[in-house]
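> call design_seq(struct)
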């Protein structure tokens, strides 16, 4: 399954992300997924689920049983033998680069990734939750899973994952972003106006869950 990049995102370099955590304070990332959106998505300009990269990460503190049961289903056994954050941080930082960050409820990803990567700051953060509230002001719920139902998004490309896994939620957020841009008939300035996470804009704008 492929998804064409909307005209509003033409020539923009974005990364749609989701992180899952261990339920501790402060939270540690145990799963990260990132989907690159730019001209590297192939000659046809379409985004494929194969473009996504993801990591399972072994935290220093164990995963709280409550989040395993109620949220993402990732257990301590699942991450046993996976690399710690120190071994994947550089790869993830390079993937994020200076791209515009996109996430659902993006304050979580922005805050937690910033704590894990103190030297990183994206030029802009776009929140599909804020965007959904603008475009679908009458939606019964703005949780990601309910918005997926509301929009009847096609998630057949996601196999072997469940809701609240990083790869699944990242693909959902991308599909949701495309649908909201199209339904709202938004161009780039309009998208930035309604979807930017407050306090996330860099000094120079680029040209052109539960734990």
């Amino acid at each position: 399954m492929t998804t064409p990049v909307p005209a509003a995102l033409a020539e923009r370099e974005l990364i749609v992300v989701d992180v899952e955590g261990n339920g501790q304070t402060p939270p540690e990332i145990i799963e990260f997924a990132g989907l690159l959106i730019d001209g590297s998505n192939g000659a046809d300009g379409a985004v494929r689920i194969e473009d996504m990269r993801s990591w399972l990460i072994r935290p220093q503190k164990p995963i709280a049983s409550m989040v395993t049961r109620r949220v993402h289903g990732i257990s301590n056994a699942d991450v046993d033998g996976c690399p710690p954050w120190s071994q994947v941080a550089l790869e993830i930082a390079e993937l994020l680069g200076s791209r515009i960050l996109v996430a659902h409820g993006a304050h979580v990803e922005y805050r937690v990734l910033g704590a894990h990567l103190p030297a990183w700051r994206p030029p802009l953060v776009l929140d599909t939750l804020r965007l959904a509230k603008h475009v679908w002001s009458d939606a019964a719920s703005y949780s990601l899973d309910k918005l997926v139902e509301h929009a009847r998004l096609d998630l057949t490309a996601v196999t072997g994952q469940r809701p609240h896994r990083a790869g699944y939620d990242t693909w959902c957020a991308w599909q949701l972003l495309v649908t909201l841009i199209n339904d709202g008939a938004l161009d780039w300035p309009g998208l930035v106006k309604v979807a930017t996470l407050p306090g996330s804009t860099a000094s120079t704008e680029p040209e052109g869950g539960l734990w």
